């Protein structure tokens, strides 16, 4: 099939062109989107908090469950992004279009099955989680967001399809619609219309629905995207489903690992220092994780650029993209480290209004101890993204297991319980374990790319050049 001429070819030229320019231009819209989502989550929590403790607890019980399923949607988007970028790099536009159609079919199937299953078992799950008096409130919220979860998953997959062809600005606009509209609708539905917790759910669903309609207009009605995203291009291929799920499933599993890590660290803190330590640690970690925003932008850009380079068998560009992204990540991480260390007391006061001013000095101390943890996030995330870009989601998952469940958990337990350092054992364990895991991830990724180039140089004509693992 000849290269498509309609749509925004300049976006494809960006993805296939200079890697430095591409990564910088693809990264910043993702950063803006992440900031808007963060602002929405903060505003949503504030509005719901006005309904009382049961409402806030209900959101707390539903959110982890909801994020698992939506995380699978994000994984489908990342998988489609990776596979499509590789097909674009190899100029196989038929398969790129077919992959886009496959991702939408998977979206439909997972959304329907997920909604049915979650609505059936949600009461039992909440009982096991110990929702208690907030159970009914959680059900009022959960039935709505789970029943209509297709709008959330479609929105995530749709924006990923745009990013795969380099159209990051419109992907940003679609995500911005959801975040901004939700901030506006929350108080109206919750308080003005008197819908309470159900109003928060409907505001969230309606905001995501508007984003979906915008995406549908661009991709299926206006049809000015580079890819021809329509079901006429769909013809089932197991290899495409496998290619998408090879990223989607490990990506979802990584979210579960982070949840397990949080549970273990909280248990050590409660055992050694009490619930106050958990509150302070949670607040400090949330603040430190603000550094994830630029890193997520750089990482997502790397996934697309490296995927296209891999598809074009330009493995030197894969290496250069990885090195350049890591450089940008380390620079942004260093800026964050300096700012957070200097302004830790002021930053920690963000949580004083919602908890206790007495926690502020503790949060400040934790930030100053753990701030170099940002470097482990940088090394780990960017290394994981290079593997996702070339379609090795399982390797990315293995690196997350090593970094989080092995290095961080073992050192936290060793320092906190065995050595008797208490809460400080967790702070140092997570930080040192994360750094060790980050260097392991970086070393693994560097060795993989080196072998990839070596194999290609040895025999450029071989069809399956990737025999590196």
Architecture blueprint of SSEs:
Layout: H1 9-16, H2 19-49, H3 53-89, H4 93-129, H5 135-147, H6 150-164, H7 168-192, H8 196-222, H9 238-273, H10 275-288, H11 292-311, H12 315-342, H13 344-348, H14 359-370, H15 373-389, H16 393-418, H17 423-458
Helix pairs in contact: 2-7, 2-11, 3-4, 3-5, 3-6, 3-9, 3-11, 4-5, 4-6, 5-8, 6-7, 6-8, 7-8, 9-10, 9-16, 10-14, 11-12, 11-15, 12-15, 12-17, 15-16, 15-17, 16-17
What does this structure look like?
With 469 residues, this protein is mainly alpha-helical. It has helices spanning 9-16, 19-49, 53-89, 93-129, 135-147, 150-164, 168-192, 196-222, 238-273, 275-288, 292-311, 315-342, 344-348, 359-370, 373-389, 393-418, 423-458. Helix 3 runs antiparallel to helix 9 (238-273). The longest helix has 37 residues, at 53-89. It starts with 8 loop residues before the first helix and ends in an 11-residue tail after the last helix. The mean pLDDT is 87.
